[in-house]
């Protein structure tokens, strides 16, 4: 079931990219109806940004599918969030490592690119996680984007 929902969401994204909002709406309704049977929220959370934005704009779909609740990023974005604070500024090398994390490079690839050891990269990553109050690399990248560091 999850795969079919994903395929409909991808198709909705393609229709939106082609500028066919009517078709995208019909396809998105199919995806929502399939997802509703098992209350599958994750495919919608991981849907392409254009699809999530479209769902946010189409209020009647959100109302009709209230089972989605407030877990959609669109619903979270509507509430004002407390701005995270960076107490300690990032070093030049940490900023460079952060850019590599955003490009989804592995630790080894980052080390090769920066001409440093793997342990040095790991040290910079630990510093980034601490300074950005994150527990995972992707969370650190997201927080850095929110703060305008990327």
From TrEMBL:
It comes from the Bacteria. SMART domains: HTH_LUXR. Residues 83-148 form the HTH luxR-type domain. InterPro entries: Sig_transdc_resp-reg_C-effctor (IPR016032), Tscrpt_reg_LuxR_C (IPR000792), WH-like_DNA-bd_sf (IPR036388). Gene3D superfamilies: Winged helix-like DNA-binding domain superfamily/Winged helix DNA-binding domain. Transmembrane segments: none annotated. The keyword Electron transport does not apply. Keywords: DNA-binding, Transcription, Transcription regulation. The keyword Endoplasmic reticulum does not apply. This is LuxR C-terminal-related transcriptional regulator. It comes from Paractinoplanes hotanensis.
């Amino acid at each position: 079931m999850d795969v079919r929902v994903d395929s409909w969401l991808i198709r909705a994204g393609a229709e939106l990219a082609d500028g066919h909002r009517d078709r995208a709406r019909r396809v998105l309704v199919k995806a929502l109806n399939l997802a509703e049977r098992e209350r599958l929220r994750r495919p919608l959370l991981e849907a392409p940004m254009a699809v999530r934005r479209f769902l946010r704009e189409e209020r009647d779909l959100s109302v009709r599918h209230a089972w989605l609740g407030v877990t959609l990023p669109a619903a979270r974005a509507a509430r004002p969030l407390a701005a995270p604070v960076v107490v300690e500024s990032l070093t030049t090398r940490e900023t460079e490592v952060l850019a590599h994390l955003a490009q989804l490079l592995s630790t080894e690839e980052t080390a090769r690119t920066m001409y440093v050891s793997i342990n040095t990269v790991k040290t910079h990553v630990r510093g980034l996680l601490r300074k950005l109050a994150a527990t995972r690399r992707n969370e650190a990248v997201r927080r850095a984007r929110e703060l305008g560091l990327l």
